[in-house]
Design goal:
The structure holds 2 protein chains of 2 kinds. Chain A is mainly β. Chain A is built from no helices and 11 strands. The N and C termini of chain A lie far apart (37 Å). The mean pLDDT of chain A is 93. Chain B has strands spanning 5-7, 10-13, 19-24, 31-37, 44-50, 65-69, 75-79, 88-95, 107-108, 112-116. Chain B is globular, with a radius of gyration of 14 Å. The chains are: A mainly beta, B mainly beta.
Chain lengths: 108, 117
């Protein structure tokens, strides 16, 4: 079992819709959770950090953490074509673990 | 500096040659990571430096790969006797802290694209 699991997609949503990206992790002692965005040919860029259960909002982005169920999600409201990218979930445990990413395409 | 920098941005080499890739982390960041990313693939962890502790080399794919971090700052990843399967983007990241706490977010450099002919 991988430390961090993501649906590879591709996930397609129309412009203006809500995109929902999900991630599950296996290490119960994990305490820090991150979402990165990676455009094609570019390096990953940190967009959200979350450390406690519940929701954390930053502009159009909302990260949701549920430690009991061991999942973390990212919601993107009012999706824009510029949001089209691969989204990587990352979790700290004994190491810093990255998921393989979910490819998101926002259709104009 | 403002962010993590890496050099060179592109490197083309011939099979069997050695290459050195450089990473300058964000000033004051104690942790430094190297990853490899092949086309269309996820991040492959290579090695991790934390302060003056012994590095975590558990991700290095073979003994042709080595890395060092001088003075707790700049790091060099060396690949000896390069093979075609070493072709990938090599990414460096740094974080203020390591472990579980706030401040362990990693910030990535732009990467070095290595092509082995």
């Amino acid at each position: 079992q991988k430390e961090v699991e993501q649906n590879s997609g591709p996930l397609s949503v129309p412009e203006g819709a809500i995109a929902s990206l999900n991630c599950t992790y296996s290490d119960r002692v994990s305490q820090s959770f991150f979402w990165y965005r990676q455009y094609s040919g570019k390096s990953p860029e940190l967009i959200m950090s979350i450390y406690s259960n519940g929701d954390k909002e930053d502009g159009r982005f909302t990260a949701q953490l549920n430690k009991a169920s061991q999942y973390v999600s990212l919601l993107i409201r009012d999706s824009q074509p510029s949001d089209s990218a691969t989204y990587l979930c990352a979790v700290t445990g004994n190491q810093f673990y990255f998921g393989t990413g979910t490819s998101l395409t926002v259709i104009p | 500096g403002a962010g993590v920098s890496q050099s060179p941005s592109n490197k083309v080499t011939e099979k069997g040659k050695d290459v050195e890739l450089r990473c300058d982390p964000i000033s004051g960041h104690t942790a430094l990571y190297w990853y490899r990313q092949s086309l269309g693939q996820g991040l492959e962890f290579l090695i991790y430096f934390q302060g003056n502790s012994a590095p975590d080399k558990s991700g290095l794919p073979s003994d042709r790969f080595s890395a060092e971090r001088t003075g707790g700052s700049v790091s060099t990843l060396t690949i000896q006797r390069t093979q075609q399967e070493d072709s990938a983007v090599y990414l460096c990241a740094s974080s203020l802290l390591a472990g579980f706490s706030s401040g362990s977010e990693q910030f990535f450099g732009p990467g070095t694209r290595l092509t082995v002919l």
